[in-house]
């Protein structure tokens, strides 16, 4: 460098070195963003499934009976709980648009009234909702499988499987 300033060659070399350094530093940030997005989708999917199972458990504790209504195939059921305060119906699976919903009562496969959607079928999708076993109308084993897109735009799906046992306090 002379007293008049920076030469064109020196400026070009500096720009090339700075570009290489920026390119090298950008890759980890891009990868970290993809990992963060994947973790966020997984956490949302797990939260959705846990929220659905907690809603079932809350209703089941106050119920006398539980009846699965498998009108839409082996992975899509309506699960009806009846008790002193009335009935509640849960439905979910591919036969219900990959959604999980809760309502006032089951209507024999025709959908449910007073509908609230717990899993919307967009961000998380219900792959399977099953009442695996009902023991003496007092214990219900439930399996809920929810899928989500691992990395947005990748098309790669990951599943979350939750299984639980729910005790019917008022069961016979």
How would you describe the overall organization of this protein?
This protein has 172 residues and is α+β, with helices and mostly antiparallel strands. It has one domain (8-167). 31% of the residues lie in helices and 37% in strands. The protein contains one helix and eight strands. The protein has one helix at residues 8-61; strands at residues 65-69, 77-83, 86-93, 99-103, 116-119, 124-135, 139-149, 157-167. The strands form two sheets. It has a five-stranded antiparallel sheet with strand order 1-2-3-4-5, covered by helices on one side. A hairpin with a 5-residue loop joins strand 3 (86-93) and strand 4. The chain is rod-shaped and about 95 Å long. The mean pLDDT is 82.
Give the arrangement of secondary structure elements.
Elements: H1 8-61, E1 65-69, E2 77-83, E3 86-93, E4 99-103, E5 116-119, E6 124-135, E7 139-149, E8 157-167
Antiparallel strand pairs: 1-2, 2-3, 3-4, 4-5, 6-7, 7-8
What's this model, at a glance?
The protein is of the alpha+beta class and 172 residues long. The chain has one helix at residues 8-61; strands spanning 65-69, 77-83, 86-93, 99-103, 116-119, 124-135, 139-149, 157-167. It has one domain (8-167).
Search tags:
172 residues; three-stranded antiparallel sheet; 8 strands; rod-shaped
Work out the number of β strands.
8
Largest sheet: 5 strands, antiparallel
Overall mean confidence score, pLDDT:
82
> Strand order, biggest sheet?
1-2-3-4-5
What letter string, H or E per element, gives the SSE order?
Answer: HEEEEEEEE
Which percent band covers the strand fraction?
Answer: 35-45%
Count the DSSP helices: 1
Based on Cα principal axes, name the global outline. rod-shaped
- Fraction of residues in helix: 25-40%
Tell me the count of domains. 1
Low-confidence stretches: none
Summing up helix and strand content along with how strands pair, one would put the structural category as alpha+beta
Cα(first) to Cα(last) distance is 93 Å
Report the C-alpha radius of gyration, rounded. 26 Å
